[in-house]
Each structure stands twice: as C-alpha cells, then as structure tokens.
Design a protein that fits this description.
By secondary structure, this protein is mainly β. The protein has one domain (35-193): Jelly Rolls (Sandwich). Helices cover 0% and strands 44% of the residues. The two termini are 19 Å apart.
C-alpha cells in the first residue's frame, strides 16, 4: 500500500469543478469520524396497537453498510398517544440481518412484553395515572449500533407496546378532548460513521 504525505489538498481554481476535491463515483473516502452515507424513512400515518407484546409500528428502514466495522447511528422521532387511564406505552428498536433478528435493545429474540421486556432497556416510555385521556408523548430514540459486523442489508424497525388493553397510537397525536388520532410525520434515519 502506498502512502501520500501532504499538508493540504487544494482543487484547481478554474474550470467546471473549480475549488473542488472530488472523490470519483465508485470510490469511498475513509476518514474516522466522518459520515459515509445516510438513509432515512418517513411515515405520515398513525398505527393503532393494543398489544402488550411488542408489534411493528410500521416505521422501518433497510440500510446496507459499506463497512462491517462502521458505527451506525440509528435515530427515530415520533409520538406515542394513549387513550386509556393508567396506560403505559413504550417503543424500542428491532434489528434484523439476513431475515433473522439480531441483537437489539429488545434482547436477542427481538420480541418482548412491555411488562417483562426480556431484561432490556425500554428506549422510549410514556404513561400516567389518573382519569385524563388523550395523553401524548413525543419521543426521540437513538441507538449507536457497533455490533452489526456486516455489509449485508440491515432492517431497523420501531416496535411498540402498551399495557392498558385499549387502543393506543404511534405516529399520532390525540386532541380536542376526544379519542381521535391525528397523523403526524415520524422519521427514522441511519448514519454510517467511519471508525
């Protein structure tokens, strides 16, 4: 392997690509700490769920890393809405590689129960006691995935659960004193960071 030692790189001052340093298509610049690529998904409709076992929210993203040792910064921004007294709602990430659920905050099985979540840490939580309905819990979840060890496609899914037995929503906002869900925009993104 050859090594080029320089202090500065500077593009040509004229021409169609003046003052640019271009990495050609098909080539990847590897510098620890820089973002290699970004993937994102948007969901604009809410999902209703009643299960205490984690189920898919409908918000998921497939992402193929360029390097097996990259750090993958996974982030979700959404809203949980509960319409029952004393309800607890939760959200976690699930990671699937090659059709099999790999390690995730849900545990190795990728499925848990909001009351006994496989010893895992709940990534987002909302809930309250009392008589009031229509509680909303905007949330952001982040996960720095350093154990994927693959350049195959990875699917990240936002999983949700609740323990009231009544309908709850994700990617939704309740309001106006009723039990109606209103759609909100939710996002899921992955940034691949060179190591």
């Amino acid at each position: 392997m050859s090594t080029l030692h320089v202090e500065n790189l500077k593009g040509l001052s004229s021409g169609g690509n003046a003052n640019k340093i271009i990495v050609p298509s098909g080539q990847t610049l590897t510098a620890p700490g820089h973002v290699i690529q970004v993937g994102s998904a948007i969901r604009q409709t809410y999902t209703t769920f009643t299960s205490s076992a984690y189920v898919t929210s409908g918000l998921e993203l497939s992402f193929t890393p360029k390097f097996s040792n990259s750090m993958l910064h996974v982030m979700c921004t959404s809203t949980l809405a509960s319409y029952a007294n004393a309800a607890t709602v939760g959200a976690v990430f699930k990671r699937t590689i090659g059709g099999s659920v790999a390690y995730s905050p849900l545990g190795t099985t990728g499925h848990g129960n909001i009351n006994t979540p496989d010893g895992a840490t709940m990534a987002a939580y909302g809930g309250a006691d009392g008589a009031a309905n229509n509680r909303q819990a905007p949330f952001t979840m982040e996960w720095y995935d350093t154990t994927h060890n693959t350049t195959s496609s990875i699917t990240y899914t936002v999983m949700v659960a609740q323990n009231s037995g009544n309908a709850s929503h994700v990617c939704a906002m309740g309001g106006l004193g009723d039990n109606t869900g209103y759609h909100v925009v939710s996002t899921l993104s992955v940034r691949e960071i060179a190591q």
